Amino acid sequence: MIIVPVKEGENIERALKKFKRKFEKTGAVREMRSRKNFQKPSEIRRIAKQKAIYVQHLRLEEE
Q1: Among 28, 1, 29, 2, which Cα is nearest to 15's?
Q2: By the 8 A CB rule, do 22 and 13 touch?
C-alpha cells in the first residue's frame, strides 16, 4: 500500500504528483501488463537478445 503524507497547507497537486511517482517506482503497471499474457522463457531470452543487438548497433553508430 502506498502512503503519501500530506503536510499542512500542501497543494493537492503536489501530493498527487508524489503518489504517481511512488506508484510508478513500484512497477505495478509493468508487472500487471507482463502477467496479462504469458511469454515462454525462450521468447523472453530471444527478445532480450534482440534488444542487446539493437543497443549495441546504436552505440557503434554513435562512435
Answers
A1: 2
A2: no
Between CA 43 and CA 1 the distance in angstroms is 32
pLDDT of 61 > 90? The answer is yes
Note the pLDDT tens digit of each residue in 12-45. 999 999 999 999 999 999 899 989 999 999 999 9
The CA distances from residue 2 to 8, 21, 38, in Å, are: 19, 11, 27
Q: Whole-angstrom Cα distance, residue 16 to residue 3?
A: 11
Strands (E) located in 1-63: none
User: Model's pTM, two decimal places?
Assistant: 0.53
